[in-house]
């Protein structure tokens, strides 16, 4: 068949040499590469990490899982102004605002607060524009946490239960909730665990 | 007729026209900003000083410059007047000072305020102000006043433009709403906390340039830039109500209803409270199409309007589609 573009390259299968036909030299060559790597891994620096137990260091400017911060006395800083959602290029953030009632002044910093605040981690591209847009210093992308893999799509929609920072023991004491030293230590230990909510 | 030169542009306007309105006949970016002047309200203007301009020559007869900057919204033109707005550095510097002055007692709670995104003060400060404040003293605060179930009053945000007072005066029969106190203690209020229950009271929400008077039924429901403005009208039983509104949709729900504003943020035709607060179903309205939103506004994000007939685009189109466009022309914007 005539070529249409005249750019087709003709390939010819050359007959194999004697060494190639003998089969074993090629096998030994390949095995020697394998064995070299095998012994190098045992003696020199390892190239893999044992993942769940051991993790690679994050870059200090890594942008990972979001957190909704609280202020120094443990009130939620977010006021549901919607600037993060309008800045988000992936439209991953949605929120519903509500009015703070009397008696909730120790829970929410401003007159208005986010009743629900959801980030879809499948949509999020972790660009950090929400962090930059936030006028209340409420939303941050943590440098040491990632959204872990899950089986279901709806498990990637993070609500306030998973985004809001837990109340720190000192904020509790500023709000008048006194913890004994043992309770504070137990709480700090519980908070250090990865699955703490 | 008087001939004036505004920023180097000559324009002829009838005698008695204010400098601001003469500039508006030219249009574009040279028009001075206005926070208190409101064309449909008699007596408004001259309070906020946002529209200050320099008069370089008073008139043809007396070409001396005016000694101080003048408020363009209340100063009538004279033949041969030469006015400088954006061409005068003095005016631009003074405008920075005006922003600072207006923001002295403003709480800057834009993240909480429902007006954010369509606020005249926000736009004015963004265009003309500086991003820092020198003010260290405590800001003015007020006891909360409840002025009824429909309108929310936030006195801390008020810049005392008096627009709402004129609206209440000129639109409604019984005046129940005015300015109490003097100077720094002046505030918009109602005597003995009278509930405003007039059929046209809702219009004070639209005339307010800041978030001092906002729609209580829309309070904290949605940020304005997440809602979609759509022009609509209905046959209103009230003879004074024009029935032409903008519906602000979020999904399928009408979040709020406002009167239509022109390019200077002014409502020309008032609507009644029934249209504004009670008709929040799509079935109540005849939809006309997307409302026009300026490209510079945050509300224009994800806002799509009808396509505009563009001569250059049409010249590049194949003949068959030009014929199709001529037979079914797309609607033009802004009417």
From TrEMBL, chain A:
<dbReference type="InterPro" id="IPR017900">
    <property type="entry name" value="4Fe4S_Fe_S_CS"/>
</dbReference>
<feature type="binding site">
    <location>
        <position position="130"/>
    </location>
    <ligand>
        <name>[4Fe-4S] cluster 2</name>
    </ligand>
</feature>
<feature type="binding site">
    <location>
        <position position="78"/>
    </location>
    <ligand>
        <name>[4Fe-4S] cluster 1</name>
    </ligand>
</feature>
<keyword id="KW-0830">Ubiquinone</keyword>
<keyword id="KW-0479">Metal-binding</keyword>
<dbReference type="Pfam" id="PF12838">
    <property type="entry name" value="Fer4_7"/>
</dbReference>
<dbReference type="GO" id="GO:0051539">
    <property type="term" value="F:4 iron, 4 sulfur cluster binding"/>
</dbReference>
<feature type="binding site">
    <location>
        <position position="84"/>
    </location>
    <ligand>
        <name>[4Fe-4S] cluster 1</name>
    </ligand>
</feature>
<comment type="function">
    <text>NDH-1 shuttles electrons from NADH, via FMN and iron-sulfur (Fe-S) centers, to quinones in the respiratory chain. The immediate electron acceptor for the enzyme in this species is believed to be ubiquinone. Couples the redox reaction to proton translocation (for every two electrons transferred, four hydrogen ions are translocated across the cytoplasmic membrane), and thus conserves the redox energy in a proton gradient.</text>
</comment>
<dbReference type="GO" id="GO:0009060">
    <property type="term" value="P:aerobic respiration"/>
</dbReference>
<dbReference type="InterPro" id="IPR010226">
    <property type="entry name" value="NADH_quinone_OxRdtase_chainI"/>
</dbReference>
<feature type="binding site">
    <location>
        <position position="134"/>
    </location>
    <ligand>
        <name>[4Fe-4S] cluster 1</name>
    </ligand>
</feature>
<feature type="binding site">
    <location>
        <position position="88"/>
    </location>
    <ligand>
        <name>[4Fe-4S] cluster 2</name>
    </ligand>
</feature>
<feature type="binding site">
    <location>
        <position position="124"/>
    </location>
    <ligand>
        <name>[4Fe-4S] cluster 2</name>
    </ligand>
</feature>
<dbReference type="InterPro" id="IPR017896">
    <property type="entry name" value="4Fe4S_Fe-S-bd"/>
</dbReference>
<feature type="domain" description="4Fe-4S ferredoxin-type">
    <location>
        <begin position="115"/>
        <end position="144"/>
    </location>
</feature>
<keyword id="KW-1278">Translocase</keyword>
<dbReference type="GO" id="GO:0005886">
    <property type="term" value="C:plasma membrane"/>
</dbReference>
<dbReference type="GO" id="GO:0050136">
    <property type="term" value="F:NADH dehydrogenase (quinone) (non-electrogenic) activity"/>
</dbReference>
<protein>
    <recommendedName>
        <fullName>NADH-quinone oxidoreductase subunit I</fullName>
        <ecNumber>7.1.1.-</ecNumber>
    </recommendedName>
</protein>
<keyword id="KW-0408">Iron</keyword>
<keyword id="KW-0472">Membrane</keyword>
TrEMBL record, chain B:
<keyword id="KW-1278">Translocase</keyword>
<dbReference type="GO" id="GO:0046872">
    <property type="term" value="F:metal ion binding"/>
</dbReference>
<feature type="domain" description="4Fe-4S His(Cys)3-ligated-type">
    <location>
        <begin position="90"/>
        <end position="129"/>
    </location>
</feature>
<dbReference type="InterPro" id="IPR050123">
    <property type="entry name" value="Prok_molybdopt-oxidoreductase"/>
</dbReference>
<dbReference type="InterPro" id="IPR001041">
    <property type="entry name" value="2Fe-2S_ferredoxin-type"/>
</dbReference>
<comment type="similarity">
    <text>Belongs to the complex I 75 kDa subunit family.</text>
</comment>
<dbReference type="GO" id="GO:0051539">
    <property type="term" value="F:4 iron, 4 sulfur cluster binding"/>
</dbReference>
<dbReference type="InterPro" id="IPR019574">
    <property type="entry name" value="NADH_UbQ_OxRdtase_Gsu_4Fe4S-bd"/>
</dbReference>
<dbReference type="InterPro" id="IPR036010">
    <property type="entry name" value="2Fe-2S_ferredoxin-like_sf"/>
</dbReference>
<keyword id="KW-0001">2Fe-2S</keyword>
<keyword id="KW-0520">NAD</keyword>
<dbReference type="GO" id="GO:0016491">
    <property type="term" value="F:oxidoreductase activity"/>
</dbReference>
<feature type="domain" description="2Fe-2S ferredoxin-type">
    <location>
        <begin position="2"/>
        <end position="89"/>
    </location>
</feature>
<keyword id="KW-0411">Iron-sulfur</keyword>
<protein>
    <submittedName>
        <fullName>NADH-quinone oxidoreductase subunit G</fullName>
    </submittedName>
</protein>
<dbReference type="Pfam" id="PF10588">
    <property type="entry name" value="NADH-G_4Fe-4S_3"/>
</dbReference>
<keyword id="KW-0479">Metal-binding</keyword>
<dbReference type="Pfam" id="PF13510">
    <property type="entry name" value="Fer2_4"/>
</dbReference>
<keyword id="KW-0408">Iron</keyword>
<dbReference type="GO" id="GO:0016020">
    <property type="term" value="C:membrane"/>
</dbReference>
<dbReference type="Pfam" id="PF22117">
    <property type="entry name" value="Fer4_Nqo3"/>
</dbReference>
<keyword id="KW-0004">4Fe-4S</keyword>
């Amino acid at each position: 068949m005539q070529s249409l573009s005249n750019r087709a390259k003709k390939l010819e299968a050359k007959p194999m040499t004697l060494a190639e036909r003998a089969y074993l030299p090629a096998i030994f060559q390949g095995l020697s590469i394998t064995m070299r790597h095998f012994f190098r891994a045992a003696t020199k620096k390892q190239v893999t990490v044992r993942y769940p137990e051991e993790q690679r260091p994050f870059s200090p400017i890594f942008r990972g899982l979001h957190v909704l911060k609280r202020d120094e006395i443990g009130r939620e800083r977010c006021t549901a102004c919607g600037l993060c959602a309008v800045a988000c290029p992936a439209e991953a953030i949605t929120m519903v605002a509500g009015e703070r009632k009397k008696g909730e002044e120790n829970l929410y910093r401003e007159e208005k607060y986010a009743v629900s605040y959801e980030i879809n981690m499948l949509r999020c591209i972790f660009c950090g524009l929400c962090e930059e847009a936030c006028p209340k210093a409420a939303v941050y992308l943590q440098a040491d946490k990632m959204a872990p893999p899950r089986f279901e799509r709806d498990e990637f929609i993070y609500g306030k239960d998973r985004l809001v920072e837990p109340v720190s023991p000192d904020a509790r004491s500023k709000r008048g909730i006194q913890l004994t030293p043992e309770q504070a230590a137990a709480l700090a230990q519980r908070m250090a665990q990865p699955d703490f909510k | 007729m008087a001939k004036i030169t505004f920023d180097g542009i000559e324009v002829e306007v009838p005698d008695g026209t204010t400098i601001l309105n003469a500039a508006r006949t030219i249009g574009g970016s040279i028009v001075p900003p206005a926070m208190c002047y409101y064309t449909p309200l008699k007596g408004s203007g001259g309070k906020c000083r946002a529209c200050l301009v320099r008069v370089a020559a008073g008139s043809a007869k007396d070409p001396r410059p005016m000694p101080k900057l003048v408020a363009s919204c209340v100063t009538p033109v004279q033949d041969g007047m030469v006015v400088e707005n954006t061409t005068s550095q003095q005016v631009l510097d003074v405008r920075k000072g005006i922003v600072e002055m207006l923001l002295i007692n403003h709480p800057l709670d834009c993240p909480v305020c429902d007006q954010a995104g369509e606020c005249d003060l926000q736009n004015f400060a963004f265009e003309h102000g500086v991003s820092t404040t020198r003010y260290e003293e405590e800001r003015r605060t007020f006891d909360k006043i409840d002025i009824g179930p429909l309108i929310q009053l936030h006195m801390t945000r008020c810049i005392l433009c008096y627009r709402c007072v004129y609206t209440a005066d000129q639109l409604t029969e019984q005046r129940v709403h005015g300015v109490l106190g003097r100077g720094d203690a002046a505030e918009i209020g109602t005597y003995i906390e009278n509930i405003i229950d007039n059929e046209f009271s809702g219009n004070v929400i639209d005339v307010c340039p800041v978030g001092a008077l906002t729609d209580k039924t829309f309070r904290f429901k949605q940020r304005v830039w997440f809602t979609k403005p759509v022009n609509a009208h209905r046959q209103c039983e009230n003879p004074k109500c024009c029935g032409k509104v903008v519906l602000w949709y979020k999904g399928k729900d009408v979040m709020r209803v406002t009167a239509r504003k022109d390019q200077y943020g002014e409502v020309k035709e008032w609507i009644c409270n029934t249209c504004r607060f009670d008709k929040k179903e799509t079935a109540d309205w005849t939809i006309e199409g997307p409302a026009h939103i300026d490209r510079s506004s945050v509300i224009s994000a994800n806002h799509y309007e009808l396509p505009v007939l563009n001569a250059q685009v049409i010249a590049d189109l194949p003949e068959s589609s030009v014929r199709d466009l001529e037979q079914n022309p797309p609607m033009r914007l802004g009417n």
